[in-house]
Each structure stands twice: as structure tokens, then as C-alpha cells.
Amino acid sequence: MAVTSLLKGFAGGREKGSEALRREVLDDFEQAGIGWIWASDADGRLIYLSDKAIECLGRDARDLLGQPLVALFEIDRDNPEEKSDRPLNFQLSAHNRLSDLVVRFTGNSEKPRWWALSGHPKVGPDGSFQGYRGSAKDITVAFQRKLEDSRMAEYDALTGLANRHRMDRRLDSTLGAYRTAKRACALMLLDLDKFKYVNDTMGHPAGDDLLRQVGDRLRAVIANRGEIGRLGGDEFQVILPDMDDRGDLGELADKIIQMLSSPYQVDGKRAIIGCSVGISIAPYDGLERDELTRSADLALYAAKNGGRGMYRFYSAELKDVEQERQIMLDDLREALENDQLKLHYQPVVRTKDNAIVGFEALMRWEHPEKGNIPPMHFIPVAEDSDMINRIGEWAIRRACEDAMQWPEAVRVAVNVSAKQFANKGFVTVVTQALAETGIDPDRLELELTETVFVGDLETTEKTFNALKQLGVRLALDDFGTGYSSLSYLRSAPFDKLKVDKSFVDSCTQKDQNSAKIISAIIGLSDALGMDVTVEGVEAFDQFDLVTMKGAKYIQGWIYSKARPQEEILQEIASGGYKIEPSGPDTYRPERRSVFRRIGVIHEDHRYEAVMRDLSKTGSRIEGLVGVPVGSGLVLDLGGGQLVVCKVRRSQDATIGVEFETPLISDGSGGLCTRHRVSPYVLAAAGMPLTSLPPGNYPNSMLGDGPRSQPQFMQVTVQRG
């Protein structure tokens, strides 16, 4: 009996000692910071947390205990190793085991803390869930180091923007998620114009500084609308989720171009670059990353080849622009050698007596196979190669030769690109042209834009001085557009300012300040003793306004379009030293002649027709006979572009229609619809098969009901 009692007492003492030891070990474990203990109740509220853990969070226990775990912690989405996209609330509600789950404490944003959370669900005797029991440890230092390492791997070290790897991953994940949800995603590719020139003339450190400033400006424009990345060099990319409105995208692209074209201060010097933008939109222009990127890339090349400083949407008509560019460059070399390039001359007229005081030389290229190629298409191609110097030299010499056949009081103006102007041999080219033709230097006027001030200002100033010593005149073209600076007028010896056509186009509109700007430029030029020419006057309402504002010289269609030398000489021979203004009473903007085959949908029939004229609000269409005024039509412009319109005029096979929703600019002088419609959506809406573009549609989507008789007669329209 005594032995039994002794053994029971020993066992009880050992149990009490073991419990004390367990608690002591647990306390030491918590105090040493090796790890902490936590527990929650069945409702997910925190009911126990180690004192050291509470101290680590910098909070009072009363602020933590009793609070829902999901209100205190969240899964960190920046964790590069986190594979699950399920929130903490989901994992706790599912009663899953937790194993070193990285969570961030939500109660302190100034000094964030990250924990690795482990735990297992506690189940009662009846199988009911009673909460979690688990451990935690602070991993803030290690996690911040991991984030920094991840950031270095996914972000550009120079600008802090996402790098190509991150942008590819984000675009893949976005397109994958949006595909099933049928959501749109726009992609912009940006390329800096003339950045290489700045880099070469001002040095690579200056180029790096410029790129950093570009990144800052892009952040300011895009804000939280999308993610920006630098792909390398001077290429940038912007992912814009849930954007497919081409009106909004065009406005954003235009804002980007304006912002990035604003002058930069780099190493105490002024630098000016430009920007071209290509835009594609999923799912219309591609479903996969490679597809969408190629579409945006083609649009970007089209924007650059269309004159730079513009944006362009992808369309199915765009081909391999890089290949076309090389073909155009080869053709341009051949054109120069075979005398296919011509100069046409547009008169500059003195308003007080309508006397011609000068002509601006404008280049024309009549390709033997492709016909007329506008300068805005081939000049940028020439500027990307040395061809611009050869073409520029030819233009100056030819203009001087032609001007020698005009009256001695009449000047000739020749446009000079920034690349020409920066060429070391430019002054020699001008000198030789003057000597070989014998023209009075004061009769030659060189038209420059503000881009000549990019780079080495000391060299630019020397070139200005050398040209003035020759006696030629200098004009600042496109004044008032972009970010023209008054400092140019102070430092450069200009003889003339030219008011850009964009101000004239809108000068008669009440909600524009263009008329005031024109007046200010004219007043400024008078104060500085400079001439001023107002460009682009087409109608008498514009003419009356600019003359009232003090315009002494006008250049525009109201006097004459640019004409070849032969016609100029015929007028001079017949005594045509003066020219009377002639044109419409009011300016009608943006109506252009086109020849475009389109579809016209009426009820359940599709007709083929030809669009002849196009503006933002309407069009002239040929090819349908018997269309009553007031008829409602849908124009199929291709690529999912549908335009609802109403017939306002109808005569023979020609109708005039007014659009229900105005078209918008495509960024390169064309027009497009704001939105596009998927052909599958059209089919699902019950549109007849004949109204749909070619494609493979599920039979269940196609209506097979009776068809009505066509109400209009379709006739063939030939080009001409």
C-alpha cells in the first residue's frame, strides 16, 4: 500500500513537472522570438497571440484580440513566390491547413510587417470546427529583400518602369483572363522620335536622364489607367485593361505625344524629341500576346512612316511596313536619279494689293506605278537615312534655278529638315546653290522648325550665323504649334514667322482661341520687326478674320494650290503678277475625297457601294438607285466598323448620308469608328448571313428565316 501510494505520488509529481516544463519551454520559445503562437475561434476572430508578437506589431492587445483575422492580415500580392490567387478569407473559410503563408499586417502602412503564418484547424469531439491553432514568425527583413530582388528582375533599373519580362507576363495573364470574360484590352507601343540624335549629340548620360524624364511624364499621363513598361532603348509599352473606345484611346495617345514632345532640360541644355504611338486592341486585333504586339508594332511603323509625332490604330490593311519602308527607300533613290521628283510652288500673296511676293517650294513624287506619293509618306523615310541630305540639296538647287526665271522681287522658300540643318556640309550646300545659280541670297528663304534646336546649341548658333553671313533669309515654320519657345526668337536671327494651318482651320469657331493666338503672333512679329505669313487660308470667312487681325501675307488655297513651274511661268509671261482670292464663303473642315468600297446594310440585305466623300458627320455614296430620303442604313466600313446613318439626299445612283455618331480621327489623317463590333455578336443578334463579313459562324447563330425582297437596285461604280 505504501509503495502504491509512493508510485502514485511520483507519477503525479512528474505530470506536474512536465506541465511546468512544457509551459516554460513554450514561454522561452515565444520570448526568444523563434516563433509565436496564435489561435482563433470558430468565427475567425483572433483569441490568442504571443506577447512578443503583439509587441512586434506595435499595437495594444485590445486592438488585436477579438478582431477578425482577415481584418488584420492579407495575402501579399507582390509576393513573387505566391502561386495562389485566393484571398486569405477564402482559405480560412475553407478550413485549409496553412503552411508558411506570407501575409502582411494591414494596420501599419508606414512600417509594413510581413509574417509567415502556419496553422491547422481544431475540430471538437463532435466534428465541429472550433478555430485555428498555429504559429507565426516575422519575415519582414527577408521578404523586403526578396521583393527588392524581384523588383530588380522585373523593373527597368534606369526608369523604374516594368521591363519587357514583366510586361510580357502581365499581358499574357490579362489576355488569358479577359478572353473568357469577353473583355477588351488595349496595347500601346511608343517609340521616341529623334532620341538617337539627342543621344549622339549630347552624350549617353544625357540620354539616360532624358529617358528617366520620359518615364516620369508617362506615369503622370497614364496614372492608374494601366501599366507602363520600358522594353529597351527608346521603346515603351502601355497595357490598358478594359479600354476599346478608340476616341478615348486617341485622346490619350495625343496627350502622350504632346507631353513627351514638350522640351526637356538636360545638363542645363534644352532637348526636344517626339513620340509616335501604335495602338492595337484585343480581341479585335489579336487574342494572344504575340498577335496583339505585332498588330501594335505595325501600327507604330505606320505612324512613324506617316510623318511621326502621331498615333495610328492597327487595321487589316497594314502590311509589313518595315518591308514597305525599304521598298520606298529604294524607289526614292531611283526617283532622285531618274528625275521623278518635282517641285510645285504655292504663292505667298500680299493682302493689300494681292501681289505675289514669293513661292514656297513643295516636293511632289509621281511614282511610275503607284502614282502620287504624298511628302508626309516619303519624307520621314528619307529622314531615317542619308537620303534626306541628297534630296534636300537637290531641292535647294532646283528651287534657286526655277526662281531665276521669275521676277527679281519674288522670293522662293524651301523647307529644311533638322537632320539637313545639322549636317556639317549644309552651309556649303547653300553656298554652292547660290554660286551655281547666281540668285540673290535675299531671294532664298529657308524654312525651319523648332526641331533644329535639338542637340548642340553652340553648333546650331554657328550655322545660323554662317547662313546670315551668306545673306539668305530664315523663317520659323509651324510657329505656335507644339511647344515653340520665345527664346528661339531671341537667340535665332529669323526674318519671318509662319502661322500654322491648324490655327486657321479653327479660327472661325466660337469655342476656340485660335483667332486670339493668330492675332498675338502677328502682333509679336510686328514688335520684333519680322514678317509673318498665315498658312492654310481656304475660305473667305477665314480670309476676312485673319486680315482683320492684321495679316499682311497669306498662303493658302484661297489664292492657289501649289502648281508646277510650267504653269507659274505661263502666268508670269501673261503678266500675272497678281492673283485675286477665290474660294467658298465658309470653311468646311474635314470633308475629303475618297474611293472606298463599302457594304451598305438595309433590313436583311447587304449591298456593295462606293464611298466618294467622307467627313466626321457624313458621306457621299454611289452605287444604289432608288433609296428614299429618310431611309435608315448601316454602313460596313470593314473590320467590325459599323456606322448607323440616315439618308439626307438621294439622286440617281448617289446618296448623301448623315451619321448617327460622328467618326473620330485615326491619328494619321483618316477617320474611324469609336467602337467595333464582333461578327459573332452580329450573328448572335440575328443579322442575316448576307449582312456579315466572310467567316465561319456556328449554324445556331445564323438566322434561317424568310428573306424580304431587295428594295434598292445596285449598280457598278468605276474609279474615275
From TrEMBL:
Q: Which residues form the PAS domain?
A: 18-75
Q: Where is the GGDEF domain?
A: 183-316
Q: Which InterPro entries match?
A: Biofilm_reg_signaling, EAL_dom, EAL_sf, GGDEF_dom, Nucleotide_cyclase, PAS, PAS-like_dom_sf, PAS_fold
Q: Name the domain of life.
A: Bacteria
- What residues does the EAL domain cover? 325-576
Q: What is this protein called?
A: EAL domain-containing protein
